[in-house]
Amino acid sequence: MQENFDLEVSKSLDGKDAIYSFKLSRNHVDWHSMDEVYLYSDATTSKIARTVTQKLGFSKASSSGTRLHRGYVEEATVEDKPSQTTHIVFVVHGIGQKMDQGRIIKNTA
């Protein structure tokens, strides 16, 4: 699937200009600050819903945007440790090309 990328300054959103707008084939992302980033659908139904809700006084972000977050909700502490490993699975990529399927099934049954 081919994605198209365009970078541009977006129109005003609630009195704030988007610093950057990143256009994809079916969506676009608006950066308003380092912590305020929204993903919008460019489908016709989403555009209609966004227009109607904005005319009713709602912001573009609150009416149709999905806020994107980066990082974790809680910071890690020194006491945090990864959970105990209980299973390890080894997968050999391309093994089907080396052996036929019948022999693999016979050998693992």
Automatic annotation (TrEMBL):
InterPro entries tied to this protein: PA-PLA1
One GO cellular component term noted in the UniProt record for this chain: cytoplasm
Molecular-function GO term, any one: phospholipase activity
Annotated PANTHER family: PA-PL1 PHOSPHOLIPASE FAMILY, PHOSPHOLIPASE DDHD1
Protein name per Swiss-Prot or TrEMBL: DDHD domain-containing protein
Organism: Marmota monax (Woodchuck)
Lineage summary: Eukaryota, Metazoa, Chordata, Craniata, Vertebrata
